[in-house]
């Protein structure tokens, strides 16, 4: 960033070679690649580090399945198995095997496929920096890296949970595979009881349980600390708090981490507690975050502008809850609890 500032100063004869690398790949006409025509690219390793930290600070996004998209593509189309039921004749969308006798005729079946389509949307950030702030490149770099990586991580996590799919990822709370467990009859408003937790766990697809995590709003925590399992005249706590009994950085329910996140709603509202296996959520992105800068936008104010763009999309892999082979309730990798307002 300091190299960008120096290259834009009047009568500057020495330009950092890293900036000249961008000039050699310049397009014709006005652009932000050549300094004299609009600005310089921010050093690419900074943008790469910004994206890496975005996934480190994003609590939910880091748990998702991520596929980088190559050049000359703005999305991804893949074939997926169209399976919504595990009953005979529906597994893998239609495969069925038979026990046959000698010389019996074979019966043909086949799988059913569906197309999963994701198209990149754009998440952007813009920052102005004065010449005085640019004089301390170390402080500015740390500020931008921390601030924008946390904000991009927050926005991605929020979209993964609540995105409506319009110009942003489709979130699990808006997705068609979400299972919503009913509250208990006569349950008091703004409470979470042990029966809620058991019923949510029972609706989580068995293969998702080893990867699943509980996401909660911090308003839910007092409910968990008072939750217990009654056994005869005694009992035991249902929630294992972090450290102490569980010896883990997170509290646990059914052995799975309980993580407080800002994206969950307040106590009693739909989405205040979510059980999810985010390996069943697919994110695509364009790889490294794009970055650019200009000294001309606010030149008369002695400010430079830095622009960051991250192109991504996402959606649950499942397009429906699953009807089990034997059982009365549908299953899903994503389960939440009915509102108790």
List keywords for this structure.
341 residues; alpha+beta; Major capsid protein gp5 fold; 2 domains; 6-stranded mixed β-sheet; 5-stranded mixed β-sheet; 15 strands; 21% helix; flat
- Helix amount, in percent? 10-25%
In total, the number of domains comes to: 2
Derived structural class: alpha+beta
Q: What portion of the residues fall into strands of 2 or more residues?
A: 25-35%
Q: Architecture of the largest domain in CATH?
A: 2-Layer Sandwich
Give your account of this protein's structure:
This protein is an alpha+beta fold and 341 residues long. The protein has two domains: 2-75 and 120-168 and 284-313, Major capsid protein gp5 fold, CATH 3.30.2400; 179-282. The protein contains seven helices and 15 strands. The protein has helices spanning 2-7, 17-24, 44-57, 131-134, 137-162, 194-203, 221-225, and strands spanning 65-68, 75-81, 113-119, 121-130, 179-181, 213-216, 228-231, 234-237, 251-253, 256-260, 273-276, 281-285, 290-298, 303-316, 334-337. A six-stranded mixed beta sheet has the order 5-15-11-6-10-9, covered by helices on one side. Strand 9 and strand 10 (256-260) form a beta hairpin. Helix 3 crosses helix 5. It is flat and about 85 Å long.
């Amino acid at each position: 960033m300091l190299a960008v500032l120096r290259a834009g100063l009047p009568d500057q004869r020495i330009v950092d070679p890293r900036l000249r690398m961008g000039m050699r790949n310049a397009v014709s006409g006005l652009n932000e690649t050549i300094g004299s025509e609009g600005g310089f690219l921010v050093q690419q390793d900074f943008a790469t580090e910004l994206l890496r930290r975005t996934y480190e600070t994003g609590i939910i996004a880091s748990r998702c399945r991520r596929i980088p998209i190559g050049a000359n593509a703005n999305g991804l189309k893949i074939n997926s198995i169209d399976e919504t039921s595990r009953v005979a004749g529906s597994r893998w969308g239609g495969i069925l095997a038979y026990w046959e006798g000698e010389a019996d005729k074979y019966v043909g079946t086949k799988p059913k496929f569906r197309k999963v389509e994701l198209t990149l949307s754009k998440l952007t950030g813009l920052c102005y920096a004065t010449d005085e702030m640019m004089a301390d490149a170390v402080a500015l770099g740390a500020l931008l890296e921390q601030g924008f990586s946390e904000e991009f991580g927050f926005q991605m996590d929020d979209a993964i949970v609540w995105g409506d799919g319009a110009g942003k990822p489709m979130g699990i709370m808006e997705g068609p595979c979400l299972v919503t467990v009913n509250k208990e009859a006569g349950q008091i408003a703004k409470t979470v009881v042990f029966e809620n937790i058991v019923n949510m766990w029972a609706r989580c697809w068995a293969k998702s349980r080893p990867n699943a995590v509980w996401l909660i709003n911090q308003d839910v925590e007092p409910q968990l600390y008072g939750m217990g399992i009654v056994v005869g005249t005694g009992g035991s706590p249902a929630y294992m708090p972090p450290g102490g009994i569980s010896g883990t950085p997170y509290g646990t329910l059914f052995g799975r981490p309980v993580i407080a996140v800002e994206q969950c709603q307040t106590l009693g509202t739909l989405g205040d507690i979510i059980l999810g296996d985010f390996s069943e959520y697919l994110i695509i992105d364009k790889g490294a975050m794009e970055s650019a800068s200009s000294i001309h936008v606010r030149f008369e104010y002695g400010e430079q502008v830095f622009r960051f763009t991250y192109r991504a999309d996402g959606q649950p892999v499942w397009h429906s809850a699953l009807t089990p082979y034997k059982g009365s309730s549908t299953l899903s990798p994503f389960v939440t609890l009915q509102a108790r307002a």
